[in-house]
Structure prediction request, 243 residues.
Amino acid sequence: HCLKHLIDIEEQDKKLELDKIECISEMNMMTKVFEFFNPEDKMFTTVLVIIGNLSASDSEKIQNQIFKEKIYNRAAELISQYNLPPSNIKELFWICANMVSCGDKFAEGFYASPMFQVTIDYIEDKPMSDTKREACWCICNFIAKVGTDIRIEVIKNHGFISFMFNLLKEAKSFGKLPETILLSISNLLSTHTFFLENDDKHPLFEFQSIGGIEHLEDLQTLPNVNIFSLSNKILKTFYPNGE
Prediction:
């Protein structure tokens, strides 16, 4: 009943108008539909589209009701255990990217859930594609929203300096993604004051050792003002006196 009601709204409007969903119990019902709906059912794509539209909402009411960590858990289960088509996987990453961007608590929930490792594995295992781009947005939104302590943790425990640098090289022709990855790298490198100089995970030394500075200098030759300014900002971290 809940699903039919939401599909009716979707068809009338073509864009889900969230203020029409008046009953919070229906929102909770939609979360349950997502949790238990058979991904092999032909209606499953519609379920994902509806959840995706809800996840893109600015409404605090929607966020507080629907964005529970079980959404991350279910997304991880669906991607890792079912042979879903790329379009469905892309939608799941999009839902999670929207959720992570809602704030630090949503980003911390993502980090604490299996979806974090599922996203990392997908990025490392697959060639660049529209689906992988959504997975990258999950990680970039995560880095943007979490605090310094978790940024330090992913540098030390998950090798995020090399991970993001490799992603930057791979994503060079994917729209605004390179700019967002550069911003993520800048956020990660800004934690350098919390590391001891002899730490083998020191972000500045690690970035330098994998050819990061040379790559940024190459990026500055591209005709892209945003990439130039972002790479310049990072280079200033290494050359604070402008040499």
Summary: The chain has a mean pLDDT of 84. The longest helix spans residues 130-145.
